Amino acid sequence: MKAPSRFAVWVSERYPSPLDALAAYFEDAQAAAASVGALLESMPALDGAWHKLPNLAGRNEQDRSYKGELVTDRDGTVWPSVTFTALGREGIYWKPRDLAFQEWRSTGGQSSADDNGARMAEYRRKAAELQAQAEADKAAAEDQKREAQEAAAMAATEAWEAATPCAGHAYLTRKGVQAHGLRVVSADHHARLWSDKLGKWLPRAIVARRGELLVPMVDASSRIWNVQRIDVEGGKQFVMGGRKRGTFHRIAGTGPAWAAEGYATAATVHAATGCPVVVAFDAGNLAAVAAELPELQKVAADNDENAAGLKGAEAAGLPYAMPSVVGQDWNDAAAALGLESVAQLLTLPVKPAEPAANGTLAPDDGQFNDVDVHSMTPVQFMSWPNTSDKGMPLNTRPNLEHLLENYGITVRYDVVRKDLVIRLPGQRGTLDNMRETAITEVSSLCALNRMPKSDVPAYLLSIGDLSPVNPVMDFITSKPWDGRSRVADLLQTISTQPGFDREWMALLVRRWLISAVAAAAKPHGFVSKGVLVFQGPQSSGKTSWFRSLLPEQMRDLLKVDAHIDPDNKDTVISAVSHWLCELGELDGTLRKADIARLKGFLSQDVDQFRRPYARAEGKYQRRTVFFASVNPEQFLADDTGNVRWWTVPVTSLDYGHNIDTQQLWAEVFTWFQAGERWWLDADEEARLSSANAAHESADPVGELIQSRYGMAPAGAATRSITATEILLEIGYDRPTKAQLNAAGSVLRALFGEAKRTKAGRLFDVPNQSAGRPF
Hints:
This is Virulence-associated protein E-like domain-containing protein. By secondary structure, the protein is of the alpha/beta class.
């Protein structure tokens, strides 16, 4: 057997079981959950099954979930991994290996040499036991799910068969649509059903109530798996524990088959077009239904505020039609515009989803002559690589490459800006629309040469991906470092507040500079938690100083005043399409509701979104580092820790320096090549926490605990006590969860980690005696 790596040995020492690693990095997992708006209050189950999570306010809305499992890496280490999802948002994948690796690197990559073989054997044994248990739990969960679905299917079928054909219903009247294959419940139905929420069987759960409208949910074989229940007020429910994925309801018609989310929308589309329409019941089920029914040709998508309808249509891989008004479906559109207008809108050409473009690249001055490519020599008819039986060029990537070569057009992919760079002779126009107009020109040339043009954008992405360009590394390595340091000169441009440790400032700036080079230079796996924050008076040159780190022609790689909402993909794309990015209004952003999501976003090594030229979402390596400027002195408000904010209090900054920034970054690149780290080790994080204390917002709980217990002399007698008991002692009769969290953070800072006991988490706190605290 191959000898284990030093990292694997360290993992077996540090975390004898994968569950120990999960406990150690639990707060980071909570941050990942918060990034999709979910609250993770306890250790996630690692059984491979999906589990519901409440939102950040603690409400169980049944729209946030996680799936945890154990994964074994190639070096034999076993890690907990959790995927967090929320309706209308992108999923987040979390695994603590990178965090552990950075922790190991911070220790110098050392591990004990004592009995490595026995320790690794025990580690593998425990991991194998956990993996076996997880697989057993997953199998049991799948069996439970199948049993629950069968029970729901039987109950739904009985309720459906006992119901009467629908001759009218208040919901249909209000929506202005007809009944197509629906029934109405004539008497209440109950059955033994499984409750996922409660985790148990309910002996007499409601299946359907008298007066409810039923929409059957069938599979491709027409078997009923569930029913959708619609009451007179329009409230919708499914049979508890029943299957939804891949089920649908058909409305018969003639012409191309449509798919829609809700029944009212589907009935409206049928009334407008006469076409067959399939009800998928929600946007998340469109792709599964499309996979079951290859005859579907179009999607009548809802124009949801969270873009769930658009994403569902794109996931189905079908052309779509969507109302122009945000918040409307096609039934709403018919009520507003009339059925005839909807019929006309649905007959317009339906195109696949293609989001609006953003960001363009500047051309290289003087690279192209003033020439119209259409006047150049066309492709020789007999030279196409791929042709039809009649000799016509086929719609293939090699043919497009041949056309580009003929006209001298280059296509590259910019890994930092995450965009295509297309250059062609005679390229003119505004920078704003350069990429879009270039694609249009290529499409026009395809038409001129009788080559199909439908897949031009996708083929351009494939071609460009084979020729990546990294403008940051091109700039840094354009000239080797000449051996003269510019870092001391750069540090002299930063005037710090009196008394602030300038050596500490130099360390933070040095680490941040290396992180910026690592973001650009590492092919994958870059993670940085450090945001360099300049705190000081307004108009002191904080933002301008960061701008001065790049020459004028490179400053489009720096974004100023980015307002990042991790749930808004436009703000995410804008931020991570730059090398250096300023977090705008940091003091306002660091509200408690935003901190966890922002921390989760900053810790990601991959960003997931769909760019205009792509047909599907992609995973993009993070090549962005963040900085911030803030005016107020007390701006930190995270009671779980502020080690992501590398704060330097400044009085002024000289951003008009004449430092050769290319040579500055070339010097930093030599540090990166030598293996110098860009993160803080445990001692440095402790030092940062101490320095950041001056910038933390006042907390009454912390102040009371500090004044009552924080001045204990060395060797004072202690007692074991919970955070709740401490709060009661200092006058909080009914402590809230926020107060408990604040107390826990202060107690950990003063007296170390709590001991886990059956009585709860106990801190060793100095005794109090009559007349004086200690």
